[in-house]
């Protein structure tokens, strides 16, 4: 895992809520990356989590933020209940106005971008 985040960036958000968002994003990346790596980076008001995991099929992409949705190939005991990304999306969009996007290709990995609003960021 590599992390490229300026230590002076501060996100103005409830710590427990931010922890929920980040832990869900990282947990998904870790769970679905058996080989390769995970990269977290911050640039242009966006936090990106990029993995080289198994990726998500194109048919599943429109549904990944729906509650209880689990892709056909994610029915093993470690894939969760299908709530993580739904919770993340709701927190980001409804509470803070942050935009979250996901791009993925089956067999190649996934990239999630969390774009913060300018008023939710400060530098120390």
Question: Can you describe what's shown?
Answer:
- The protein is an alpha+beta fold and 124 residues long.
- It has 2 helices and 7 strands, in the order ββαββαβββ.
- It has helices at residues 15-31, 84-96, and strands at 2-4, 9-11, 38-43, 46-51, 99-105, 109-115, 121-123.
- A hairpin with a 2-residue loop joins strand 3 and strand 4.
- The chain is globular and about 45 Å long.
Brief description of this entry?
With 124 residues, the protein is an alpha+beta fold.
As a percent range, the share of strand residues is 25-35%
Unreliable sequence segments: none
Derived structural class: alpha+beta
Strand order of the largest sheet: 1-3-4-6-5
Number of helices, where a helix is a run of at least 4 consecutive DSSP H or I residues = 2
Which range best describes the helical content: under 10%, 10-25%, 25-40%, 40-55%, 55-70% or over 70%? 10-25%
What is the number of E strands?
7
Rounded mean pLDDT score: 89
Shape, principal axes of CA atoms: globular
Which radius of gyration do the C-alpha atoms yield?
Answer: 14 Å
Biggest beta sheet attributes: 5 strands, mixed
Order of helices and strands: EEHEEHEEE
Straight-line N-to-C gap: 25 Å
């Amino acid at each position: 895992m590599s992390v490229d985040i300026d230590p002076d960036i501060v996100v103005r958000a409830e710590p427990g809520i931010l922890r929920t968002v980040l832990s869900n994003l990282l947990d998904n990346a870790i769970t679905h990356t058996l080989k390769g790596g995970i990269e977290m980076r911050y640039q242009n008001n966006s936090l990106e989590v990029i993995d080289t995991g198994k990726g998500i099929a194109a048919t599943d992409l429109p549904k990944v933020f729906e509650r209880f949705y689990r892709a056909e190939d994610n029915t093993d005991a470690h894939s969760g209940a299908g709530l993580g990304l739904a919770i993340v999306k709701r927190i980001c969009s409804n509470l803070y106005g942050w935009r979250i996007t996901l791009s993925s290709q089956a067999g190649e990995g996934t990239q999630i971008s969390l774009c913060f609003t300018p008023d939710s960021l400060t530098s120390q």
